[in-house]
């Protein structure tokens, strides 16, 4: 199988993992990105409509080079994928491309694609047309529990404090860093220890597991998500998660203890305080064992075969 991948951000770690594991299975993956710069400041796109229009003839030309499938990763690449008419098109929607400003475009393009992949059942409901739910997979070898003191020593974190991990840039409005700060402040009033909000982003993916094992909890305050990898990676490390009810988080945390899902700030603060007052691992690893990278790749490859 020879696949032409179109992607708005080829540096997205889950996209890189996706292509790497598919290639290990014998799928040949080529990647194209639209002209212009994807990032102006942390994950804020600067591409114009003109950049995406210039992308169309490039994709049409490249699609003649012996590919079997065009895989549009992220909704804004779908028009270029559909502009070529020789090859079947698979569209993967990541979350904000369906739930955000350009969701209307993703929905319209999805109607003309041969197969559509979404990350969660919530996204499937929003799309409201035939699709496959295949969440991004997790590297279960890299994301695994290790001693907290060891991880904190490696990072230089104070072992006497409580540490809450917020793994996103504060500038990403959809992640709602101000709300995270408010919840941590409320929770810290209920805890007999110093609490520190660790805002971590831009570190090599290989190091993220160390931060997760050094923390007492992961806090997610996003306004919308698809199937956030940070939650699945935290669960793979047995790190408790406190989160707003977005994407598939409630399903992921169902039966996992300790954890908390709510859209109420007081409940989120109470759930976080519970974890911080008595720090302990959750039992999340078993809950995500079935969404490893190999299983994800197997399912995506099956989609390719179905459209070819």
Describe this structure in words.
By secondary structure, the protein is an alpha/beta fold. Helix content is 41%, strand content 15%. The protein is built from 14 helices and eleven strands. The protein has helices spanning 13-24, 49-62, 78-83, 96-99, 103-110, 121-127, 148-155, 177-188, 205-214, 229-236, 249-253, 265-277, 285-288, 293-307; strands at 2-7, 28-32, 69-73, 89-92, 115-118, 132-133, 162-166, 195-199, 217-220, 241-243, 260-261. A six-stranded parallel beta sheet has the order 2-1-3-4-5-6. A five-stranded parallel beta sheet has the order 8-7-9-10-11, with helices on both faces. Helix 1 (13-24) links the parallel strand 1 (2-7) and strand 2 (28-32). Helix 7 crosses helix 9 (205-214). The chain is elongated and about 65 Å long. The protein starts with a strand and ends with a helix.
Features of the shown structure:
308 residues, six-stranded parallel sheet, 11 strands, alpha/beta, single chain, 14 helices
Q: How do the strands of the widest beta sheet line up side by side?
A: 2-1-3-4-5-6
Enumerate the spans where pLDDT stays under 50 for 5 or more consecutive residues: 40-44
**Largest sheet geometry:** 6 strands, parallel
Give the number of helices.
Answer: 14
Radius of gyration over alpha carbons?
A: 20 Å
Q: In percent terms, what proportion of residues is strand? A: 5-15%
Q: Label the overall shape.
A: elongated
Give the fraction of residues assigned to helices: 40-55%
In terms of quaternary structure, what is this?
Answer: single chain
Number of strands: 11
Order of helices and strands: EHEHEHEHHEHEHEHEHEHEHEHHH
Distance between the termini: 9 Å
Sheet/helix structural class: alpha/beta
Mean pLDDT: 93
């Amino acid at each position: 199988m020879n696949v032409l991948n179109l992607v708005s951000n080829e540096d997205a770690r889950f996209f890189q993992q996706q292509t790497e594991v598919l290639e290990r299975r014998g799928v040949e993956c080529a990647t194209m990105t639209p002209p212009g710069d994807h990032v102006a400041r942390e994950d804020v796109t600067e591409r114009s409509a003109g950049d995406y229009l210039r992308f169309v003839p490039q994709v049409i030309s490249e699609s003649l080079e012996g590919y079997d499938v065009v895989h549009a990763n992220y909704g804004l690449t779908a028009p270029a994928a559909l502009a070529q008419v020789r090859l079947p098109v698979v569209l993967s929607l990541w979350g904000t491309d369906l739930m955000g400003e350009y969701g209307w475009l993703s929905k319209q393009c999805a109607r003309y694609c041969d197969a559509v992949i979404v990350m969660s059942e919530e996204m499937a409901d929003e799309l409201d047309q035939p699709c496959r739910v295949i969440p991004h997979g997790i590297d279960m070898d890299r994301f695994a529990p290790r001693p907290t003191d060891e991880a904190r020593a490696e990072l230089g974190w104070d072992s006497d404090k409580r540490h809450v991990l917020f793994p996103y840039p504060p500038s990403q409005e959809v992640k709602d860093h101000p709300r995270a700060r408010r919840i941590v402040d409320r929770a810290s009033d209920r805890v007999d220890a110093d609490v520190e909000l660790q805002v971590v982003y831009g570190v090599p993916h290989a190091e993220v597991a160390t931060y997760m094992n050094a923390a007492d909890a992961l806090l997610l305050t996003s306004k919308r998500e698809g199937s956030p990898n940070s939650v699945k990676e935290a669960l793979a490390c047995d790190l408790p998660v406190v989160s707003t009810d977005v994407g598939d988080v409630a399903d992921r945390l169902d039966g996992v203890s300790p954890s908390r899902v709510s859209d109420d700030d007081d409940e989120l603060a109470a759930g976080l305080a519970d974890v911080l007052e008595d720090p302990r691992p959750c039992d999340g690893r078993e809950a995500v064992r079935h969404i490893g990278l190999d299983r994800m790749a197997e399912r995506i490859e099956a989609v390719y075969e179905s459209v070819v």
